[in-house]
Design a protein that fits this description.
By secondary structure, the protein is α+β, with helices and mostly antiparallel strands. The chain has 8 helices and 11 strands. The protein has 2 domains: about 35-45 and about 60-170, no CATH class; about 180-295, no CATH class. The chain has helices at about 5-15, 20-25, 40-55, 95-100, 165-170, 180-190, 245-255, 285-295; strands at about 75-80, 85-90, 115-120, 125-130, 135-140, 150, 225-230, 235-240, 265, 270-275, 280-285. The chain has a 6-stranded mixed beta sheet with strand order 1-2-5-4-3-6. The protein has a 5-stranded mixed beta sheet with strand order 7-8-11-10-9. Mean pLDDT is about 90; it is low at about 290-295.
């Protein structure tokens, strides 16, 4: 019997994402694309916020860097996007959930994120109250929360806690994004753990090079500072260490795994990715160092 289009798309997807086949199948939409970007509008908004938190690491704690989501680079995770939810699969779900959820007295975490349910020993269902988006963090490799309802293993805000004044102020400082920019930034987050099955590129969760390519092992396990800033259609991402900008461009524009309609461009000697009216300029310290070395 011929393989279904859904399963065929899932097999293509797992080559890039590292998901289990069943997890990938759960993310295949009706058009039988690989589905990394097919989602509800609230998921697109939520993933763009995750990108802002994840891609800002430094000392500007008045902005998204203060959410400390860049710490996700310290954990081995698999991002498994679905149409109606975002799923993060990891062997350390408690650590990841605790990093992402605001505590009872504030501090780090994504503003407005709440615990909706804890199940078994390692499955968390979270709800982002401002957007209504659902996030699942689980150690189940298939991406489904499993086990009986349970109390969480740490103190956090639950879904009955309203948005605090401090959280509203933090979200109020988030710059406006165009629809295309939101799709582009959401797409970056969905690809933080992708890699090319032929070994041409890898993102490595902004932590290391999974392909261990010669000459690319410097500063291994040092994610370095990174900054994502912009407004409307125009955004700029600066970072130290990995990944190489060529790798990120390939992940976002590739024929199989890329965002539909995204294309690579070069502006002022730096790579950029465009999607509709939006542009994400890429400024990597590693690419600058490579250019300086090539001139010697």
């Amino acid at each position: 019997m011929p393989e279904s289009s859904r399963k065929s798309a899932a097999r293509s997807r797992v080559l890039y994402t590292g998901e289990k086949l069943a997890a990938a199948q759960a993310g295949i939409p009706r058009d039988h694309s690989i589905g990394l970007d097919a989602c509800r509008s609230e998921q697109s908004q939520f993933r763009a916020l995750l990108a802002l938190g994840y891609l800002n690491h430094g000392v500007d704690y008045d902005g998204p860097a203060g959410w400390h989501l860049s710490a996700l680079s310290s954990y081995t995770v698999t991002v498994s996007p679905r149409f109606e939810r975002t799923v993060i699969i990891t062997k350390v779900p408690h650590n990841v959930a605790q990093r992402m959820l605001p505590g009872p007295v504030g501090g780090s975490g994504l503003p407005g994120l709440r615990l909706e349910q804890c199940r078994g020993y390692g499955s968390y269902t979270l709800r982002h109250m401002p957007t209504g988006a659902e996030l699942v963090i689980t150690d189940n490799p298939f991406g489904r929360p499993v086990g009986t309802p349970n109390a969480p293993y740490f103190d956090c805000l639950t879904s009955d806690a309203p948005l605090s004044v401090a959280e509203a102020e933090q979200l109020g400082r988030v710059p406006d994004m165009s629809v295309d920019a939101r799709r582009l930034l959401a797409g970056v987050f969905c690809r933080i753990t992708t890699k090319d099955p032929c070994g041409a590129w890898a993102i490595g969760n902004w932590f290391y090079d999974p392909l261990e390519r010669p000459g690319r092992l410097d500063r291994l396990h040092l994610p370095g500072c990174r900054s994502l800033r912009g407004f409307g259609d125009n955004w700029e991402l600066e970072w130290e260490a990995g990944p190489y900008p060529e790798d990120l461009t390939s992940a976002l524009t590739g024929s199989v795994v890329g965002i539909a309609g995204a294309s690579a461009a070069s502006t002022l000697g730096h790579l950029a990715v465009t999607l509709g009216s939006a542009t994400l300029h890429l400024r990597s310290a590693r690419s600058c160092a490579a250019k300086r070395q090539s001139r010697l």
